[in-house]
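Lab manual, section 2.4: Encoding a predicted structure.

Procedure: take the sequence of the chain (110 residues), apply the prediction step described in section 2.3, and record the output as structure tokens. A sample record is shown.
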Amino acid sequence: MKKTKTPSRYQRNALAPGLIAAAVLFVAPALLDSGWFTVVRFIVAILALIVASFAYQERRLWWVPVFAVIAAVWNPVLPIPAEGALWTAAQPVAAVIFLVAGAIIKRERA
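Recorded output:
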């Protein structure tokens, strides 16, 4: 007897950008002193705005300022001069925030 799978009731649109951003942020401490960190800033800032958009669409409004701050801090156009242990520790902290938001922000399927 073949068992049919029932599709999930929810879709997590913020999960893919959250996973990509988390992967980049976990690698970021190794790239802090290289020119590649500008690329990290672009990726993180753009994906933060995308996740904020999904959060807004799903009425998870308390996530919007969190990702607005992440987008501002990792902003490559007007970069905040950050270095040292605090900046190095901020990379995995932001990665965990992306992972949690990606899992929590969901939409019920029609």
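Check your result against the sample. The two ends are 29 Å apart (CA to CA).
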